[in-house]
């Protein structure tokens, strides 16, 4: 490379390849590297072959990256060359500018120098006839120090470039200027950018229309924000209708981008939204028109109206699209729009329920996520006609779909007993099919029982025969269904709806046999010791009142949000540190009255907590342990029936 046999056009490709291998090799001596740099600088001659100059500049860029100590030398060499040959090949000057910017990005001390050079050179190169150079410059505009208003003017002008890939990158550049740190105060300029993007929605090339949809979305929302009062709503509706006109585009990518853009609009008239769910033009939108495609003539903007009926059936088409990407995007778009109006949410729910039968797991999951979002904002009004489709997701083959479906039940208020019973049956069926989901299913059963105490008690009364031991004395607690019903039963006394709980106390004693499984499921609500204390208290009470589980100033035994929805996000877990079992005594005589127990909150640290030492409890525990010791040899020898009879005595 130092003494190559080259022509005047520059070094051979073989010599350049050898030079690259030496540059990237960390073992190459500094003397050799210096010789390579000197030789490459010698080859930077304007009269050399442009291809050879391209490779030479690329090697100099590699040299600056791998040998940072030489970056200033390389930068000055390339800068001198770019100033020398700026009247020659546009492609070569652009390559040199690319090398200079790359070096300056890795060495901040060179930023002022590149700023002095870049703006004027950038603008002059943009107006050269080479389309590939314009494309590269506009694509990398953010790497140069160009004043925002100058760059905006350039990008807006190049949206009319005859080459479609230049128009696309110009539109992408306009989108990049819609940033919080770039303030465009001229409303006429904002409207001009929006109108130019709208005009390109009818471009012949798919990728230009794709970029135009994004530009319309960004500049349209900026235009809405710049207007006031009624005009703000009108422009927002106009933007929404304009994007709706693109959801039936022949390009899949354009349709996806259109739905993504619709989901970002936070203010739309209810009649326009309702029109998107009906292919038939509604009377409320039949006569409405909004500013649509526009053109700029003699420094004024001329709008062509677009009818509100352009939004007809937009979401119907999206949710029925043959491509799952479009269906998924339509569901995501409804994520935010469905919480704007209650009536629209109810109509959208009918469509989303049909989507739950979609062949694509991704689409089903997205639809459920949207419904979950609606439930959080109390916009999900589930009706009996929806339950068949919804319950199918509870037993879906996808663990993600089942999980989100359970989250919806956790957050939804069920308005009648029939829907509640269907939900419980669905959860129990899922528990039998997917035992690995037990912890989450138990948690959901517990939560919906707390939120719907009256319904939970009604269900337990209907199925009490299933929970009770059979006539032969056999217990069915190994059954997943019975275990789930026990979890539902123990949640009822904690409901706001239940002042006096009519669930038999023995049900709570049955639940003690599943203490480990239940406590793992309710770890976000209470720990194992608290659960045991709660079950023990309820199993000994003749009358269970929910008032017993409220402390001073009506503080609940378990954290509950307004409306009865459990606060599962609260990291605080109720523990025995916060309560103790206190025996009620007759204050006048000091004699123990009827053995009634209540849960009382005390400020005892968890590490200092221990259960009160009651002689009766201690004796009972000793008796149980003694009996277990006596029967252990029977268990080992297989006398199970005899053991069960002894335990029931």
TrEMBL record:
Alphabetical list of InterPro entries matching this protein: ARM-like (IPR011989), ARM-type_fold (IPR016024)
Annotated Gene3D superfamilies: Leucine-rich Repeat Variant (1.25.10.10)
Domain of life: Eukaryota
Annotated GO CC locations: endosome
BP-aspect Gene Ontology terms: intercellular transport
PANTHER family per record: INTEGRATOR COMPLEX SUBUNIT 4
UniProt protein name: Protein SIEL
Organism: Davidia involucrata
Record lineage: Eukaryota, Viridiplantae, Streptophyta, Embryophyta, Tracheophyta
């Amino acid at each position: 490379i130092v003494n190559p046999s080259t022509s005047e056009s520059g070094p051979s490709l073989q010599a350049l390849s050898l030079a690259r291998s030496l540059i990237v090799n960390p073992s190459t001596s500094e003397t050799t590297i210096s010789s390579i740099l000197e030789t490459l600088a010698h080859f930077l001659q304007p009269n050399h072959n442009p291809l050879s100059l391209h490779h030479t500049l690329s090697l100099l860029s590699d040299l600056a990256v791998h040998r940072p100590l030489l970056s200033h030398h390389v930068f000055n060499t390339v800068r001198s060359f770019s100033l020398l040959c700026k009247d020659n090949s546009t492609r070569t000057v652009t390559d040199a500018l690319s090398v200079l910017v790359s070096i300056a990005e890795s060495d901040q001390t060179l930023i002022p120098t590149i700023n002095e050079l870049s703006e004027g050179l950038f603008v002059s190169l943009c107006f050269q006839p080479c389309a590939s150079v314009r494309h590269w410059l506009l694509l990398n505009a953010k790497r140069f120090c160009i004043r925002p208003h100058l760059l905006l003017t350039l990008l807006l002008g190049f949206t009319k470039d005859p080459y479609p890939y230049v128009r696309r990158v110009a539109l992408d550049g306009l989108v990049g200027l819609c940033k919080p740190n770039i303030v465009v105060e001229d409303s006429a300029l904002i409207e001009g950018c929006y109108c130019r993007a709208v005009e390109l929605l009818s471009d012949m090339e798919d990728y230009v229309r794709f970029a135009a949809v994004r530009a319309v979305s960004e500049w349209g929302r900026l235009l809405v924000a710049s207007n006031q009062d009624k005009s703000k709503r009108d422009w927002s509706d106009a933007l929404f209708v304009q994007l709706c006109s693109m959801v039936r585009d022949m390009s899949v990518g354009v349709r996806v981008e259109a739905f993504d853009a619709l989901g970002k609009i936070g203010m739309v008239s209810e009649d326009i939204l309702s029109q998107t769910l009906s292919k038939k033009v509604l009377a409320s939108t039949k006569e409405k028109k909004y500013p649509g495609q526009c053109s700029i003539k003699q420094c004024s903007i001329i709008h062509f109206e677009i009818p509100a009926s352009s939004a007809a059936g937009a979401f119907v088409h999206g949710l029925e699209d043959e491509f799952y990407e479009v269906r998924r995007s339509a569901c995501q778009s409804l994520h935010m729009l469905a919480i704007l109006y209650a009536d629209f949410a109810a109509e959208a729910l009918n469509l989303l329920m049909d989507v739950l039968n979609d062949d694509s797991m991704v689409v089903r999951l997205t639809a459920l996520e949207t419904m979950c979002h609606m439930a959080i904002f109390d916009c999900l009004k589930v009706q009996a006609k929806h339950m068949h489709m919804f319950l199918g997701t509870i037993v879906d083959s996808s663990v993600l779909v089942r999980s989100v479906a359970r989250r919806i039940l956790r957050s939804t208020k069920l308005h009648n007993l029939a829907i509640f019973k269907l939900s419980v049956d669905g959860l129990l069926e899922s528990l039998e099919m997917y035992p690995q989901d037990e912890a989450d299913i138990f948690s959901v059963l517990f939560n919906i029982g707390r939120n719907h105490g009256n319904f939970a008690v009604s269900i337990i009364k209907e199925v009490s025969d299933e929970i009770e031991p059979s006539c032969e004395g056999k217990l069915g607690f190994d059954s997943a269904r019975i275990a789930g019903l026990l979890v539902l039963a123990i949640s009822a006394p904690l409901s706001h709806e239940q002042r006096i709980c009519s669930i038999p106390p023995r049900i709570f004693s049955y639940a003690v046999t599943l203490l480990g499984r239940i406590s793992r499921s309710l770890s976000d609500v209470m720990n194992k010791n608290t659960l045991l204390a709660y079950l023990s208290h309820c199993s000994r009470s003749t009358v269970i009142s929910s008032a017993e589980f409220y402390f001073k100033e009506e503080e609940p035994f378990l954290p509950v949000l307004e409306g009865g929805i459990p606060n599962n996000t609260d990291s605080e877990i109720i523990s025995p540190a916060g309560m103790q079992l206190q025996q009620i005594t007759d204050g006048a005589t000091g004699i123990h009255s009827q053995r009634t127990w209540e849960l009382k909150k005390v400020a005892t640290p968890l590490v200092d907590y221990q259960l009160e030492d009651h002689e009766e409890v201690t004796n009972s525990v000793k008796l149980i342990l003694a009996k277990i010791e006596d029967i252990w040899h029977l268990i080992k020898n297989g006398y199970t029936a005899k053991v069960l009879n002894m335990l029931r005595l």
